[in-house]
Amino acid sequence: MKNTKENKNNNGFTLVELIVVLVILAILAAFTIPAMLGFVEDAKGKAAIAEAREIYAAAQTAGTEIGSRWSGTIKDGNEQFKKDAGQKISELVKGDIELSNVVWEINSGNLNKPKESNNIEVGVDYNKFYEPTKDKFKYKESAKVWFDKDSSNSGQFVVKAIWYVDKTGNYRVIIMEDDAKGISTTVEKIK
């Protein structure tokens, strides 16, 4: 008889012990899950920065290649430069980023308007050219690139700024070149 009682007492955990373990796991989850979600959001923002930097590198290449064939100054109204640069950037990032709709204007009338996604638009002279407001620049997987002549009067085209919205449409990355401060990168979540 004594053996039977001992066996009953050694057959696993009591209900109270199981509840205590579940409460401890719930408390750990309450602290851990938000931290993990923060890591995921941070990773998505960094992925958007990496995509914007790829566009920046492609724009530098396009500016060098097209600028070497270009004589004189470029003005905002020079639509052929914008079109050529936009197409070259689109070609260079194809496969990673789909910028298939090159947007430009001819004689201040839209030849092709931005679509809901996949736009590449080129501007000239960031300081004088319009700066898009953040609420208007929100198309998924779209970029706006500004070129200007190098401040050292070398005649080289340089990328002055890039605005990019990632593939999900959740992050906007702004890369700006400043002669005094260098290159800065900003990423923000689109609301």
Give a structural overview.
The chain crosses the membrane at residues 12-37. Pfam families: N_methyl. This is Type II secretion system protein. Keywords: Membrane, Transmembrane, Transmembrane helix. The protein is of the alpha/beta class and 191 residues long. It has one domain. It contains 3 helices and 8 strands. The strands form 2 sheets. It has a 6-stranded mixed beta sheet. A two-stranded antiparallel ribbon has the order 2-3. Strand 6 and strand 7 form a beta hairpin. Helix 2 (15-69) crosses helix 3 (79-93). It is elongated, with a radius of gyration of 27 Å. It starts with a helix and ends with a strand. The relative contact order is 0.14. The mean pLDDT is 79.
